[in-house]
């Protein structure tokens, strides 16, 4: 048993509640497909107070095109596609780690990034599902997940209010939906969080809210988020920040995660103004006011440049010649990322088949209205 057992979260009763926030340890792909390490991380997360462990089911081909560009890593520059390819994990891994997590009294959560990973995830019978920020506009994936009629956590980084509205319109009537406010930057500046947006998003969309936090501080954003009504707190978890996982440098090791859990529980038990006053004394009032922000939903300064790049659009899978008739196998809904140009929004995916190309489109590039 873990020290968090008195704060059990009843998923079946849909009881998202700022007085008992669901605390999620995002393990992502930091296990590097090693089931022994995944078990060790799951055990450590439970001992640190997590109620849920979250994983990512990565298949590079359903996330980005091989021509999307390179990223700098300690060993030199490599294709981003190759980095994602290295994160692929045997499908048996997920069923095994789900069983182990549930045997430890934890909820198992996983993010699919496309229809292939969604199909595999469904076969292991998850109790709820997480949609990552870049897939918030992936219409086909949202429609598929909605058909499952399971609870859904939807992250909203790098999005505008209209983007969230479109996603909620697909999911809300079919699922028990919780919206996670997020700043897609690694690490995200605390002052970009605009936490006063939480009650506004809840009121606008009629759903509970939480925060998926990428900031470096263990406690500041999670505790203040709870004071603003957050019923879910998600934070990256690692065994050590020196581990080789993709997100380990911005994740919390067990001691820091445990510190975060205590801060979240204290904020949940306190009157909101007491939490705000406490952190204003400890961290300065100016900093806290900047973190709380205006309450208006806008792109955060640290993520503005990524709008239309990290989220999804329609891209050519091969060189497509002028005059060709588009086949469904010629294009896919992918992240644009580094050196490519975005294409049409994913909602146009079904309308492209059979169209005649007006321009040559190199493999990987986005397909636009003027190209068809």
Can you walk me through this structure?
Helix 1 (35-48) packs parallel to helix 3 (91-103), helix 1 (35-48) packs parallel to helix 9 and helix 8 (220-227) runs parallel beside helix 9 (254-269). A hairpin with a 2-residue loop joins strand 3 (70-73) and strand 4 (76-79). It is built from 11 helices and 12 strands. The protein has 2 domains: 5-287, Aldolase class I (TIM Barrel, Alpha-Beta Barrel), CATH 3.20.20; 308-371, Antifreeze-like/N-acetylneuraminic acid synthase C-terminal domain (Type Iii Antifreeze Protein Isoform Hplc 12), CATH 3.90.1210. The radius of gyration is 20 Å and the shape is globular. The termini are far apart. It is of the alpha/beta class.
Write the layout of secondary structure elements.
Elements: E1 22-28, H1 35-48, E2 52-57, E3 70-73, E4 76-79, H2 80-85, H3 91-103, E5 107-112, H4 115-123, E6 129-131, H5 139-148, E7 152-155, H6 161-171, E8 177-182, H7 197-205, E9 209-213, H8 220-227, E10 232-236, H9 254-269, H10 272-283, H11 285-292, E11 312-316, E12 331-335
Parallel strand pairs: 1-2, 1-10, 2-5, 6-7, 7-8, 8-9, 9-10
Antiparallel strand pairs: 3-4, 11-12
Supply the key terms.
eight-stranded parallel β-sheet, alpha/beta, 372 residues, 16% strand, two-stranded antiparallel ribbon, disordered N terminus, TIM Barrel, Type Iii Antifreeze Protein Isoform Hplc 12, 31% helix, globular
Task: Give a quick rundown of the structure.
Helix content is 31%, strand content 16%. It is an alpha/beta fold. Strand 8 (177-182), helix 7 (197-205) and strand 9 (209-213) form a beta-alpha-beta unit.
